[in-house]
């Protein structure tokens, strides 16, 4: 495949190249498969394919009003609508970006410039937790901070930032002459689907004059669920918010969004012109130049496929599609709790469930390994076999010291019945693996 | 349009939404029109549309090998091939990004981490010129530097960084206890198509131990021209290189590339894992995880449409398509030089020409305005009318103190004959505008 990738002097026939493309692209994980439960899956609605195709065919350069007044108007209007869903005020604004990583980076740069004098930066500190997505730390380092300026605050038993620990840490940092300036909370932890206590963190941010960023790359979409919107209570108090549509809004890659409470902060950080007058114009004008609100100059109109999808589906349907994901994870939890030898490590939250199989033996049969390590091996093998046999892909992660299986059930195409079949199969595999492991160990003695 | 952008509760019919999309997208500049000469146009080859559409339909998450071994292999292989075209060694590597802005930012972060201790950053300085693309300064500031750490080195009469001035500036900065660490040169200035003297700058970079970045977002594509490849002599000495395929390689947005001489530098800056052992594995492995080489975690396989296009066209054709652009600008220069009252402000370079109309009068007819200001108004009006009458879009810029018209002639669909017709029309408009301006001024007296 490596050699075939290199272009030759002569043209190749269309069917040849399309055939090669098919072969190349077959080597992948189907992130959009209903039974792919790993990472955050990407179950794409067919309208996004069509919207994306049309956007591509028009191929507007959506960096400036002059190039793209139509798409820029619609993207800006859609951004305002998203901001309203989060409860942000009319001063808010944002930009469609390639995804959560760039959104988080954009937020860090904006917070940095809004909260710190340049000279203060070396003493600045940012608060995240062990559960915060790795793109947050990457964005902080890209924006010029040192890794040791990142504080990983202790979590509670639900893997959420512990407000009391955060307060203590801030106090201790201030005592040491450091300058706390930003809290990065999460709405929809990748590991567990959990949501930091946004109101508690907002209280702290308010009293300590810190920037509150909420990484809702995955979970902010819950705001479009009529039933579960309340889960994100407190998100209204964010100074900036990351929200990916290629996660739980059924879009093809790439379609991310960063919102800020006051769009002037974006313009102050990213407008390239030196003229303050023009920048002020920029904030008040309806004629948005997106290249003054983010990192990119040339940019595709990434929001248009999302606009197309929302128009085509209607919000009632979108709400149902999101609710379906929440329901599936809760259903899975119920089923596992009814089965023997399965342990729930983190209950269903925002369509994510963590669980593991614990074999029905009182202690491990072989020496030199403790019980949890033994279980780790069994659960890793369950995941491997489920993938190998094409049953489903629940991948593994660690939220505590033990390894667990994890399901993110956001596909609108998966039914409860199908999910029940998957869980039954996992249970069979678990019994098989467990028996085989116990036997192997015993035979070894 | 703003209200129509907001999603409603109910689904809208397909034809309705497609119709709205058409209306929205009609408000734009056709960056791909053969007679759009402004900015850097985006003349898209039809194979890129198809390649992009297929990439979208497969919708791989090309961040990691596990998600996307096929596309990752091909992208990595294509990156190596591009690095070879620039003469970079086998140690080189890179990543497809959304465009020049992110590529330049990626290069700044990589250079920063490769050349500076963290403590040295406040004293670090970077050298660019007045002609350097604005995304460079933006990337520097995003990466945590202050605007006053940017040195805008004086240019020669061809608007290229003056090596002697650069040497003096470096010497002076060192004397002041500052730490020079990076030169950002350009291959294909947006304004003039000019190329900095890469060998002279590389000599300085070498002797001063600085990182040499080359922003070839526009001009690096000349490396694929058999005839004009030599224009980019010295690019082989770059430590990092930006190269956009949605500019002069006929791709839809977005398709940019950043290359570095030693891919380990990318991994050291962007790999999220803490384990050095794993990072070392990452550099030697054929199993590339692109999320360890750039800012993004989730990323679409942006390089696949370019791969598709190159396979379909073949390199001989691509070379001809690039040469055609160079030829058109040289032809335009010849024609303008043959016409009366037109002045060439910067000769044809890499398919870009700068020129202006100078009315045949010895001095301005009205008081309170000098001759150049008078010419500025005339040339601005020529551009405006050419766009209004749908003849062509040569936009204006300033490379000296006077305003000039600028043509970037990269469209393979434009013939010499058609271009001649455009120039004749511009000449007619110029005469008309000039006569009207002279008359208005005279009547005022």
Notes on the protein architecture:
The structure is a homodimer of 445-residue chains. Chain A has 445 residues and is an alpha/beta fold. The first copy, chain A, folds into two domains: 60-313, Type I PLP-dependent aspartate aminotransferase-like (Major domain) (Aspartate Aminotransferase, domain 2, 3-Layer(aba) Sandwich); 317-444, Aspartate Aminotransferase, domain 1, CATH 3.90.1150.170. The first copy, chain A, has 14 helices and eleven strands. In chain A, the strands form two sheets. Chain A has a seven-stranded mixed beta sheet, sandwiched between helices. In chain A, strands 8-9-11-10 form a four-stranded antiparallel beta sheet. In chain A, α5 (134-142) links the parallel β2 and β3. Chains A and B meet through α1, α2, α3, α4 and α5 of A and α1, α2, α3, α4 and α5 of B.
Estimate the strand proportion of chain A.
5-15%
Helix and strand element order of chain A: HHHEHEHEHEHEEHEHHHHEEHEEH
Largest interface, by Cβ-Cβ below 8 angstroms: which chains and how many residues each? A-B, 99 and 99 residues
Low-pLDDT sequence parts of chain A: none
Approximate helicity band of chain A: 40-55%
User: Which sheet architecture does the biggest sheet of chain A show?
Assistant: 7 strands, mixed
Identify the quaternary structure here: homodimer
Morphology of chain A: globular
Report the count of strand segments of chain A: 11
CATH class membership of the largest domain in chain A: Alpha Beta
In the sheet with the most strands of chain A, the strands line up as 1-7-6-5-4-2-3
Instruction: From the 3D structure, determine the CATH topology of the largest domain in chain A.
Output: Aspartate Aminotransferase, domain 2
Number of helices of chain A: 14
